[in-house]
Design brief:
This protein is an alpha+beta fold. It contains 2 helices and 13 strands; from the N terminus they run H-E-E-E-E-E-E-E-E-E-E-H-E-E-E. The strands form 4 sheets. Strands 2, 3, 6, 12 and 13 form a 5-stranded mixed sheet that branches. Strand 7 and strand 8 form a beta hairpin. The protein is globular, with a radius of gyration of 21 Å. The protein starts with a helix and ends in a 5-residue tail after the last strand.
């Protein structure tokens, strides 16, 4: 009889473990209590990777926003807070900001300054439950 009860206890433990593990694997678990979903993709400008650009997903209703910065290949991944990856499901306004370093100010002995220029905006981008791969194509030089 004890063997049977151990087996049932073991099955319950495995079921509970799987139930807790599943949300983490599908990307919808956060220790912060926010129900966020992974959002990443590539940003290109005029067909080339857009490095060091800020990617900002702003909620039109004043809810939580998410942001990230592109690497040298143009790849970004969003975070809702510095420690919470992803974004909440919903519609967003997306802005791409170019970070321009003022080398003249640095040459004059100053620390230099970074100016943020908005280069692209889109008003209706949807983040859905699950993984979101959202590539952004910016055409700055249109002929």
């Amino acid at each position: 009889m004890r063997t049977g009860s151990r087996l049932v206890s073991g099955e319950i433990a495995v079921t509970l473990f799987a139930a807790c593990l599943f949300p983490m694997l599908c990307g919808c678990y956060s220790s912060s209590g926010l129900d966020t979903f992974p959002v990443s993709g590539y940003v290109t400008i005029d067909g080339k990777p857009f490095a060091n650009a800020d990617v900002i997903f702003s909620s039109p209703d004043g809810g939580r926003s998410a942001s990230g910065r592109t690497d040298t290949s143009g790849w970004y991944s969003l975070k809702t807070t510095p420690t919470v990856r992803g974004a909440l499901a919903g519609n967003y306004q997306v802005r791409i900001l170019e970070n321009v370093f003022d080398s003249a100010a640095a040459a004059d002995g100053g620390p230099g300054a970074v100016t943020k220029n908005e280069v692209w905006t889109e008003d209706d981008v949807e983040v859905t439950q699950g993984n979101n791969s959202i590539d952004i194509i910016v055409q700055k030089n249109r002929s």
